[in-house]
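Researcher: Last one for today. Full complex below.
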Amino acid sequence: MSKITIKTLAKELKLSVSTVSKAMRDSHEISQETKLRVNELAKKLNYVINPYASSLGSKTSKTIGVVIPEVVDSFFALAINGIESVAQENGYHVLIYLTHESREKEQNILMDFESGRVDGVLMSVSRDTQDHLYIDELMQAGLPFVFFDRVFDDVETSQITTNDYESAYLATKHLLEHGCKEIMFLAYSKSLSIASKRLQGYTAALAEQGLVVAQQNVITFDHDFNASYLQLKGRLQEANRSDGVLASVEKLAIPIYQACEELHLSIPGDLQVISFSNLDTAAYLNPPLSTITQPAFEIGKVAATALMTFLKRKDSVQVKEEIVIPSTLVVRKSTKA
Amino acid sequence: MSKITIKTLAKELKLSVSTVSKAMRDSHEISQETKLRVNELAKKLNYVINPYASSLGSKTSKTIGVVIPEVVDSFFALAINGIESVAQENGYHVLIYLTHESREKEQNILMDFESGRVDGVLMSVSRDTQDHLYIDELMQAGLPFVFFDRVFDDVETSQITTNDYESAYLATKHLLEHGCKEIMFLAYSKSLSIASKRLQGYTAALAEQGLVVAQQNVITFDHDFNASYLQLKGRLQEANRSDGVLASVEKLAIPIYQACEELHLSIPGDLQVISFSNLDTAAYLNPPLSTITQPAFEIGKVAATALMTFLKRKDSVQVKEEIVIPSTLVVRKSTKA
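Model: Here's the assembly. Have a good evening.
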């Protein structure tokens, strides 16, 4: 049997999710008759909305949920610290949930929020997630969301990102200015907001030099990591082999170093490398890695502040707000500076 | 007003924490009279034990809490993945709580568990925590704990660690065998279980060569990181300067590389370096870092399995069980192999 959600109740009763939620919270906006209908069905289906840990939107659990893809990544690890610094000042607990890039896991986590476990959610979307229907429902039911890093552009809420487009544009331009002709772009997804913006920045910098994106220069490391790695190695062995590469996420930087070591290629002599990365070892790699360093801690802090501000307000309508905190291109010896 | 805990109730009523907990869970072991007394006081003091999200020991929230110092650390990031792999198979949610090495934060997190938010706890102790009175109380009240990495030797439960003593012993021996005479030990705490075992291993390897631990060779990076860093740099500039170093936690490896760069010392020429570390960049540092690589994912997995096994059992007494999963010394170019 599939899990009973607030949506199940709404559908069954031909009511909106928001009405069902309000009825369960005994809102004065809802008639006694509707409340009775909702509660009867909830009882029948064994659906429990937790009255102690807080109800959706009633702001009493003093807990926020952070939904992110993973923690084996400096960006997210630092962002968590930024989030916690703000939450703590405001007397909130932080619960961290990992989706491991799976839409299914993400969905299960979000379903758990229906029981009122958290007062609000800070979220960075998983790689496999392509729609936000379920998030819309939770927001309608009174649970506030703030997105950071990996966002849904068309959700009416605060969205905290870095300047993904400009950063990728500047990094690609840097490679072009230092002699690269065949620049690869290593992507981590075809659909994520950050992936498409970074790819657009790369494309724009090439276009400025009258170059078009060659299909073989864009390698997406999505479901079969090894296959993509072999594709990368292959591209480094061809006659017109690649001489520069922009890795759009941190975890793709080390595979480049590994491929060069295996193929006896020198960085930056044979291949110049830049990666989006918050690795604190970047400066001590061989050679030191040029990075686009994201303001990870700051992004976490600003995202948490946006959520806290919302939770303190009396009215409860979230509005679209885009906050962009710029990254820094740090040139080190993996490019010919 | 300080928060009302189950301990407050127990003290006030002159009952054990365990009795109070059982009374609140309506256990058949407790008399009606006692239940009445407990519930009356709980009501009076506004103490709520959450009947929906599960009660302590009643195992219904299908959620486990992971209490760790931080996530900007490969060991903990990988251990979380190990934990989640097991939890998921067993249909459990995982909530991650960070103590940031603070005893106070750790205590607040544990207090939150009194409300029955989790069915069990996987924990790695914070640097500032020196006693486990409060954990004992929670365990008595029926909340199972399993420790990993940073443990309390004298708590009667499963404890999953790596071979800290042997690993430090072997690393120090490796440095001695490759010509080091003045080996530093960089510690992260004076009190943690891992700190003392690793220091003992270092001490034993020196003793085998008739050497004693020199006070100036043990540097503890605890509360003032910069002061400790200056102490490290100072030790590298003295006449009988240090020629080898064992970093007992990952985050102390990069400061060594930084100090050598600032002082124009070569690794391994002037200073040989080994660090406990799960950094996946270790092999690509300049020079590649010799590491004691801990089975982080495996430790997380085994710890979670121990907790799951316990949660599935009918009886509810935890027993002491020590599981040691060995680390591997990976020799790279930061030592003269």
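DSSP finds eleven helices and twelve strands in chain A. The first strand of chain A starts at residue 63 and ends at 68.
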